[in-house]
Amino acid sequence: MTRKSGRPPKANGETSRQQIIDAAIKIIKKKGADAVTVRNVCQEADIGTGTFYFHFQNKDDLLMYFLREMPFETCDLNTPISDPAGRSVELYMLLIDRYMELGIDFMKSFYSTGNKPLSAYFGEEDGAFPTGTVMARNESDMFLAQEAGVIKADADAHMICMDICTIVKGCVFEWCLTDGNMDIHETLKKILSGYMTQYLS
Questions:
Q1: What is the pTM of this model?
Q2: Which of 10, 57, 168, 169 is 20 to 30 A from 129, alpha carbon to alpha carbon?
Q3: Residue-wise burial string across 32-68, b where 16 or more C-beta atoms lie within 10 A, e elsewhere
């Protein structure tokens, strides 16, 4: 782990890091992602700012933790490349399942228009998905499917993955609106299966 600025924490490093993460989760559930500040997190976790900066650069770096904790580049998927829709669903569900574990209140508050790290994560850098993101992995798999002849050679794999990301965000939002009463996995599977039909060879 790359060391951040600030004095080392007195307590065990991993323990204090988890305290910060747990404190952020509590604040997000109660007041939303916009309410997360270094000061608020330190007060909730009962730690000093030096300890915070030892683990995270700033509040945006902390919020990004909830997006980049999954090793998307190296994670193993069970769905074959021959089923790009199903593989996309399996990939995105790794992220969605993690959020669902944190509860509906977290999801409702985290997926807000004011969450700048979230917007940055699901965006592009110079026309490409940021390395290590779920979109970058999805695009990599889509290229493999295209090379294998599963997807039409003239299809724009990048645009497909942008559309998939938009569909996923829409399903997450709908899940939040229904207070978690929607089967997000089945809904995502149905929509993506229909969407991908036009691009299959």
A1: 0.78
A2: 57
A3: bbeebeeebbbebbebeeebbbbbbeebeebbbebbe
